[in-house]
Amino acid sequence: MGLGISGGGVGAAEFFAKAGARVLVTDLKTRGKLRESLGRLKGLSIRYVLGRHRKEDFENADLIIKNPGVPNESKFLALAKKSGVPIETDVGIFFDLCPAPVVGVTGTKGKSTTAFLIHQILKRKYKNAVLGGNIGKSVLEVLPKIKKGGPASPTSQGGPVILELSSFQLEALTEKKLSPHIAVITNIFPDHLNRYSSFAQYAKAKTNIFRFQKPEDFLIIPEDNRLLEKLTKNARSKKIYFSKIVAKSIPFLSLAHNAANLAAAIEIAKLFKISRKEILSLIPRLKLLPHRLEKVGEIGGVAYINDSGATNPGAGIEAIKAARSLFKNGRLILIAGGFCRRNFKKRGFSHFASRFGDREDES
Questions:
Q1: Which residue of 8, 45, 124, 213 has the fewest CB atoms within a 10 Å radius of its CB?
Q2: Contact (Cβ atoms closer than 8 angstroms) between residue 73 and residue 50
Q3: What is the dihedral angle through the alpha carbons of 10, 96, 64, 33, rounded to the nearest 10 degrees?
Q4: Looking only at Cα atoms, what is the longest distance across the chain?
Q5: Which residues contact 135 (CB under 8 A, 6 or more apart)?
Q6: What is the pLDDT of residue 143?
């Protein structure tokens, strides 16, 4: 249910079609809007119901795979439950089938970059390290690449697996009562309030990343973060704190938020027995993701930075702070757009705008 345009539904449909299942994809979006996703499934034996949902498809299915973006309150999901049809997500199935240790990364900002950095560092020593989740590939899309094996080591065939997990994906872990062996939370502030009724509800979804961990598992969070300290006070796993570091050898990695992302990645590397010397040797070769404070050019002495990955006021504030730290004496011009989500107009944007009000040379 819900093919979507971000890859999650595509990965699930492909996984089950190749496994020999009779797959029907249903999505409220039209064929035109789903053109790219449909192109990736070309040649597979899949039936489609697009632009609408049919009640009978939810009443008569053997199993429904719900795209993470589909609200749990959907009347069609309620119909399936009433008919006794089991409802799963790609993340839930992945955790059932994955044979390797999982590093899960979540947060309001920085989770993609942190997961990307962790994968680069672990890949140098663990050749079979796999990256997936909310970073462009469905977890089921990467599942066939994961080999069985014991605890990850340079010579073992097993993992590790690094997953970026959104709040939507983490909701699936409630039913499974499962959390990754190693959980990382980069930060947390209001986001997705078009999906969640309150910040508290959004934060609760994030806590699933450690909620079902065992004492032998690990939880990694930033130091001096009172909100996360409060949210994780009942965690049963071993808690590890990361602090901001400076890595001037990488453009833009010396900025505060990227330094924190790298600091979290380094704590993961330590857990996988990668020495400090090895880590330091890797830092100059690390790359960053596009659309995250990405310098795209400089014209007439003006640097142009693409931070379109920032989709909420909190993330925007962090970008402003980062730009100021890099261009201390320069004039900062922000080009922004979007729409107001619930109570952001009163709280989020007023705080966001205040970040521009303390210097006369900014607009």
A1: 45
A2: no
A3: -20
A4: 65
A5: 112, 115, 116, 164
A6: 87
Based on the structure, what is the number of domains in the chain? 3
Identify any residues that bridge with 298 across adjacent strands, giving them in sequence order.
303
As a whole number of angstroms, the distance between CA 105 and CA 126 comes to: 18
Domain check: are 108 and 181 in the same one? yes
- Regarding beta strands 294-299 and 302-306, do their DSSP bridges make them parallel or antiparallel, or are they unpaired? antiparallel
Give the pLDDT of residue 278. Answer: 92
Do 166 and 274 lie in one domain? The reply is yes
Q: What is the pLDDT of residues 129-163, one digit of tens each?
A: 999 988 867 788 888 888 665 555 444 556 699 99
The whole-angstrom separation of Cα 56 and Cα 187 is 42
* 238-242, strands of its sheet edge to edge: 130-133, 161-164, 102-106, 182-185, 218-222, 238-242
Residue that the structure tokens 């962790």 belong to? 118
- What six digits make up the tokens of 275? 């020495």
Q: Are residues 108 and 83 in the same domain?
A: no
User: Which CATH number fits the domain that encloses residue 238?
Assistant: 3.40.1190.10
Domain boundary among 88, 106, 126: 88
| Domain final residue pick, 34, 53, 88 | 88
Triad 217, 219, 223: Cα angle to 5°: 150
- 361 in a structural domain: no
Quick one: 178 and 310 in the same domain?
no
- Is the pLDDT at 74 greater than 50? The verdict is yes
Whether residue 362 is contained in a domain is answered as no
Residue 363 lies in a domain: no
320 shares a domain with 184: no
Beta strands in the chain (DSSP E): 23-27, 46-50, 64-65, 87-88, 102-106, 130-133, 161-164, 182-185, 218-222, 238-242, 294-299, 302-306
Amino acid identity of residue 353, one-letter, is A
Tokens representing residue 74 in the block: 């959907």
**Same domain flag for 96 and 217:** yes
Dig out the tokens for 136 from the structure. Answer: 């462009």
Whether 361 shows a pLDDT value over 50: the answer reads no
Cis peptide leading into 290, omega within 30 of 0?
Answer: no
Residue 229 exposed, middle or buried by CB count within 10 Å (0-12, 13-18, 19+): middle
**Residue ranges making up the domain that contains 99:** 92-285
Question: Is residue 231 one of the residues assigned to a domain?
Answer: yes
